[in-house]
Design a protein that fits this description.
alpha/beta, fumarase, globular, 5-stranded mixed β-barrel
Length: about 180
């Protein structure tokens, strides 16, 4: 088995084009956290042609609502949220330059088509490993929608955040391929 692919954010098309469904990656740089309430607000701003609180170009959004940090820590447990809740919003954000999303679970067809059309990828983080994942987060600061509490948009500085490419720019989907592989004839 090949070792993990080391990548840095923001993501470029050149990096995205090298990633394939099933690749293990270690991500360093900046991720933004956001869940459905924040996604809804971002899409409303786009539809109203108003400026966004963050620049989406080349960015990766981690679907997470972290727990409060313990003293001296930048963040609490930070496990992934189920991704399909962001599916109504993801194609609009991808069209505006979002290059990566991290969560858990399968994505809808409209999201996969947007990823193919605009060259973006979807990564899975391991559910239930929030305490371990939080150790890769070195800094965290709220940058938008503080009123949403745990669902506020945060800028996260990460070092070697572990994930797996689930959907690549060619439309390959690890979840679908995995089900086909183990389906009985």
């Amino acid at each position: 088995m090949q070792g993990p692919v080391i990548i840095r954010t923001p993501l470029s098309d050149a990096v995205i084009d090298t990633l394939a469904a099933g690749d293990r990656v270690l991500i360093s740089g900046v991720l933004y956290s956001a869940r459905d309430a924040a996604h809804k607000r971002l899409v409303e701003l786009i539809r109203e042609n108003r400026p966004l609180p963050i620049d989406l170009a080349g960015q990766v959004i981690y679907y997470v609502g972290p727990t409060p940090p313990r003293p001296g820590m930048p963040i609490g447990a930070a496990g992934p949220t189920t991704s399909y809740r962001m599916d109504p919003y993801a194609p609009v954000l991808i069209e505006k330059g979002l290059k990566g999303m991290i969560g858990k679970g399968a994505r809808g067809e409209a999201v996969i088509e947007a990823m193919k059309r605009h060259r973006a990828v979807y990564f899975a983080a391991t559910g239930g490993a929030g305490a371990l994942i939080s150790k890769t987060i070195k800094r965290a600061e709220v940058v938008a929608y503080e009123d949403l509490g745990t669902e506020a948009v945060r800028k996260l500085e990460v070092e070697e955040f572990p994930a797996i490419v689930v959907c690549d720019v060619r439309g390959n989907d690890l979840y679908r391929e995995g089900r086909r592989k183990y389906r009985r004839p």
